[in-house]
Structures are given as C-alpha cells and as structure tokens.
DNA sequence: ACATATACCTCGGTCATCTATGTCTATTAT
DNA sequence: ATAATAGACATAGATGACCGAGGTATATGT
C-alpha cells in the first residue's frame, strides 16, 4: 500500500534515530534498511535523508566518521550519541501519545491509562 | 503533552471526516470537538481548518449548508457525503498501515497478519 | 458601552519532503 | 577495454501542510 507522503512528515527523524539504535550505519544503508523494515512503506529519498542527517549531527544527536570498504570506497557512518538516545526515547513517547489521540478521535476503544487523562474535575 | 505539529501533517483531513461521521458540524464546533476528543492534543487552528473544509467540499467529500441559531446567528454546517465516507475508510486503512510500519521500524512486536506480508518467495 | 466569546475568512511565512541534478567510484556487462 | 549500472554522497528549488496574524461581524455578559 502506498502511503501519502505527508503522513510521514515529522516522524522521519525518530525513524532514523531508531535505525541507529541497532548500530552505526551509513546514509545509503539507512534508506535500504528503512525500506526493508517497513515492508516498502517508507522509501526515504536521498534529498530527504542527507540534509536530515546533517541537521541531526548539528544538534549532537548523532556523530559521524569516515570508513573505507574492502573495495576502497569511502562511506560516512553515523553513530547515535547519548543525547540522541534520549531524543529517541522522547520521540517515541510523543509518537505513542499522538497515535493514541488519533485513535481516540477515530472512535477506537482506548485501553485505560493510555491517554493519561486527568481525573475528571468535580462538577460542583 | 505537546505534539510537534508536523506529526499531525497529513492526518488532519481524516480526522475532520471522522468528526463528521457522527453528525453534521460547523467549523468552530469541529475545532472544539477535536480538542476535546484528543484530550487537548489536537488544537487545530482556524487558519488550517477553514481552507481544509473548502478543499474537502471541492472534492465532494462534504457538502455545506447555512443554518440559524436560536439567537439568530448564522452557522455553516458540513455534512459527510457517501464519497467522503469512502474516503474516510480509505484514510483509516492507510493510517493503520502507516502506524504498523512505524512500529515495525521502532522494533515493536507486530501482531501477525497486520503487515500483509507477501508470502516469502521460494529461494529456487 | 464595552469586552469577550462565537463564527467565519484569507494571506503570507515556515518547515519538511521530494524532484531533479550533479559528482565520484566500484562493479558488471558487452 | 569500455560502457553502463549501482553505490554513495551532496545541494537547490518546488511543493504542500500547517500556523500566525490579521480582518469582519454578531451575540452575550457586565
């Protein structure tokens, strides 16, 4: 199934950080891995990923280093920092909150406790 | 919890259609209803909603009519068309697919059958 | 009478993603 | 040997979604 691209908007940084949680990766590899893990739902474009990686590095969520392949080709590997791991945890929490809220609007039953509802105010 | 606004991007039309499934509503009412149902997660702005409603009407997903309040004020009510109902069903399906794919990338266990995986091709 | 809430609307800015394009190197096909 | 393809990085400009800010007008509360 093809997903309207704007749906993905906003969750891309989280997905990239999630990929790096399982080990250092280079850009091109992330695109393939994301495509594979999502069963072809997310076909991230290079024009999206590379600028995003630069932004994540600027914010110190990831660091990068160059590494040679056996063939002599150079790759730029990215590594998750502890700050990036914290950010991932935050983004995952935000993601849970978001999907719970959408499901609530769509009218799906929500398991109690999920929405962290404030206790109902006393009606005088 | 505050949600980064770009997360919502793309799912807004679905949410609006979902609201109208429960009966005709006017714009201002939808904003309040969305805020209420989502426990203040979605605070849709007028600058977002009104142009969106016009677009939905243009695509024949909704129709509109004017109606007076007891006080004499005029409101513009929107009503879901059968085409809009179909669109909502499609968008909900897309939404399920999307969240399943994100969860797969995040590494959460996925209930079997959800991802509609093609049977593994025979490896010769 | 004045402020606030209700109710509609539009314009322009911001930001995320994609399209298109470019570069360079390694591998595969002819 | 040479051409074509795939791998790997990068950026510029277009598109599109959402919001901020502003505008108009009526009803209600003080």
State the fourth-level CATH superfamily of chain A: Winged helix-like DNA-binding domain superfamily/Winged helix DNA-binding domain
The helix-strand sequence of chain A is HHEHHEEH
Helix content of chain A: 40-55%
Radius of gyration computed on alpha carbons of chain A? 18 Å
Number of domain modules of chain A: 1
Most extensive chain-chain interface:
A-B, 38 and 38 residues
Mean pLDDT of chain A: 88
Strand percentage of chain A lies at 5-15%
* Strands side by side in the biggest sheet of chain A: 1-3-2
Oligomerization? homodimer
| CATH secondary-structure class of chain A | Mainly Alpha
Major β-sheet annotation of chain A: 3 strands, antiparallel
Gap between N and C termini of chain A: 51 Å
In DSSP terms (H or I, runs of 4 or more residues), the helix count of chain A works out at 5
Using the alpha-carbon principal axes, give the shape of chain A: globular
Topology:
The structure is a homodimer of 124-residue chains.
Chain A: H1 5-8, H2 12-21, E1 25-26, H3 27-37, H4 46-58, E2 62-68, E3 74-80, H5 82-106
Antiparallel strand pairs in A: 1-3, 2-3
Helix pairs in contact in A: 2-5
Chain A binds a DNA duplex (30 and 30 nucleotides) through residues 5-6, 8-10, 12, 26-29, 44-48, 50-52, 54, 69, 71-76.
In words, what does this structure look like?
Two copies of one chain form a homodimer. With 124 residues, chain A is α+β, with helices and mostly antiparallel strands. Chain A is built from five helices and three strands. The first copy, chain A, has helices spanning 5-8, 12-21, 27-37, 46-58, 82-106; strands at 25-26, 62-68, 74-80. In chain A, helix 2 packs across helix 5. The radius of gyration of chain A is 18 Å and the shape is globular. Chain A starts with a helix and ends in an 18-residue tail after the last helix. Chain A binds a DNA duplex (30 and 30 nucleotides) through helix 1, helix 3, helix 4 and strand 3.
């Amino acid at each position: 199934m093809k997903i309207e691209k704007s749906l993905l908007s906003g969750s891309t940084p989280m997905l990239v950080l999630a990929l790096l949680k399982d080990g250092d990766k280079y850009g091109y590899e992330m695109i393939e891995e994301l495509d594979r893990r999502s069963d072809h739902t997310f076909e991230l474009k290079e024009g999206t990923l590379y600028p995003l990686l630069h932004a994540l590095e600027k914010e110190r969520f990831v660091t990068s280093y160059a590494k040679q392949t056996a063939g002599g080709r150079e790759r730029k590997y990215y590594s998750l920092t502890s700050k990036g791991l914290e950010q991932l945890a935050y983004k995952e929490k935000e993601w849970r909150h978001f999907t719970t809220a959408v499901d609530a609007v769509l009218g799906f039953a929500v398991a109690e406790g999920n929405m962290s509802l404030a206790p109902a105010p006393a009606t005088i």
